[in-house]
Amino acid sequence: KSIIRWFSTSFLCFSIIFLLTLIPLIFYCRNVFYELEVQKSTQQMNSGVSHIENTIISIIRAKSSLSADIRFLPFRYIDPDYESISTLTRKQMQKYLNSLMSPLYLVSDCTLHLSENVVITPSVTIFNETPSYYPSHFYVAGLTYEEWMSFLDEKGSGFLPVMRITVDGNSTYDALIYS
Question: Is 132 helix (H, G, I), strand (E, B) or coil?
Answer without folding.
Answer: helix
